[in-house]
């Protein structure tokens, strides 16, 4: 597979992919809307100690799922661009020692570059990173990233307080002129236990009402599609062929290892699918790995029902949709034809010529309800 034909692959026949997610749990400061596993530390981080722990956890995971061919690696966070390039290189070396690396492997690193971090970009490139995903704060850093990497993406949050569709359209048009091949556009979510949640509860932060949110969403779809960056997933837009192959591993319910504090994995062992999660707190994760050789605190075998629900929940986010036959194999029973017929009639889903079931543009704003209906 090459970097340009990922989505062109027929999702029904594509070889199962294996991804590795590596979580770097530190940020310079905490954004008031963010509930990701990210922490601010004022003392220097002992990166050599983290490298030893990442290496141990990679070895322990590879012992459970040996012989895999890694097609994607994703350094997420937190702010992975705070890592030294040598740290990234050492983690990539550890992955390569325990699994086979596919020749066209996609290696993404999330970055919130300040001018200092931007100078590290060449180091990441030399270490083996070939794609960078930039955070919202980074619009003016896009040019620097594009100079160092062939493949770049950046994130923007919309549906912000008082944001009008006109203002968003102007911001998005400007972003698209800077964008390379991929954009992640997230509607602001008010997450529990964040400063934004407190402001929201006090009426001091007002998010757009349903109609405005819908208009913002429609504006997003129209502008991106017009610029050659259609949505291939509910919040992700790419030039055809430039989709993030790592995130496709999740949405197509393939297998992935979760390495580092608070990382989730899905491992296929002995014909069963294991859902794994590691200790979230960075220092507790380190100590756990140092004493046990891994940081796993959750390791649950999924039932057929859970696998089938997850397949629907993830797969229906994709514009390509899901293969109903794969659903039937996972669930042990087909989707209910009456429910599909009703959703068809409502215009929320459609069946493609090659038999994929997918959510329509009109159905995407009510995706949660569509999934709940099909999974019931
Ligand atoms: C969790 S961050 C990790 C990478 C990097 N630190 C960054 O900020 O981009 C990834 C993205 O999640 C998105 N995000 C975080 N909290 C969000 C929220 N409450 N609503 C919508 N998007 C959010 C932001 O777009 C952010 O760029
Ligand atoms: S930089 Fe990214 S991960 Fe860190 S707090 Fe902000 S949104 Fe969250």
Structure notes:
By secondary structure, the chain is α/β, with parallel strands linked by helices. It is 39% helix and 22% strand. It has helices spanning 47-64, 85-98, 115-118, 121-127, 142-148, 165-178, 195-201, 210-226, 245-251, 282-292, 304-315, 324-331, 337-346, 367-375; strands spanning 18-24, 69-77, 100-111, 131-134, 151-158, 182-187, 231-233, 236-238, 255-259, 264-269, 272-278, 296-301, 349-351, 357-359. Strand 2 (69-77), helix 2 (85-98) and strand 3 (100-111) form a beta-alpha-beta unit. Helix 11 (304-315) packs antiparallel against helix 12 (324-331). It starts with 17 loop residues before the first strand and ends with a helix. 40% of the residues are buried. Mean pLDDT is 93; it is low at 1-6. S-adenosylmethionine (SAM) is lined by residues 33-34, 36, 77, 79, 110, 112, 135-136, 155, 157, 186, 188-189, 191. S-adenosylmethionine is lined by residues 33-34, 36, 77, 79, 110, 112, 135-136, 155, 157, 186, 188-189, 191.
Bound molecules: S-adenosylmethionine, iron/sulfur cluster
State the major sheet: 9 strands, mixed
- Gross morphology: globular
Q: What is the count of DSSP helices, taking H or I runs of 4+ residues?
A: 14
Protein structure class: alpha/beta
Order of helices and strands: EHEHEHHEHEHEHHEEHEEEHEHHHEEH
Ends distance: 36 Å
Uncertain regions spanning at least 5 consecutive residues: 1-6
| Largest sheet strand order | 7-8-6-5-4-3-2-1-9
